Amino acid sequence: MFGVTTGIVLGIVAALNKNKWPDYLVMFIAMLGITIPVFVLAAMLQYLFSVKWQILPTSGWGKPKHMILPIIAMCFGSVATYARYLKANMLDVMGQDYILTAEAKGVSRFHIIKDHVLKNAFLPCITILGRTDFWYLHRLLRHRKRCSVSRVLGSTMFPRSTTVTTP
Prior knowledge:
This protein has helices at 2-16, 21-35, 38-52, 64-94, 97-105, 109-127, 129-142, 150-157. By secondary structure, the chain is an all-alpha fold.
């Protein structure tokens, strides 16, 4: 949910600052999030934050500081997806006639965005939310060894059986 929330916030910022530096920065981050694979991003984050700057641990489990790098690496793609999707939806809704009518009537920009734009821009984003939850679980299981949590996830979610049963 971190990736979804961050992506939504960045998408709103990008849409409200169209063709300004916050929009360009968010779209640059979104392009990086879409193009860089999770395992490459995880390796880059481990190198920067653990080896080079020695801010966070390289691996481990149990403390919140051990979860920061895996969360960032695994949520970066969904941040990019939701930021781009929400920005496009908001810009589409902001160009509709009823928004222009509300502006002409003198409704404040805050109320237009809160009451009309966000409600209608979120609807298409909700449709991809179910797919995103499944994708999180898939990526977690696929990249768990990269983040050194395979013992924990492997023993709790998929315990190994020592006996083979055949029908």
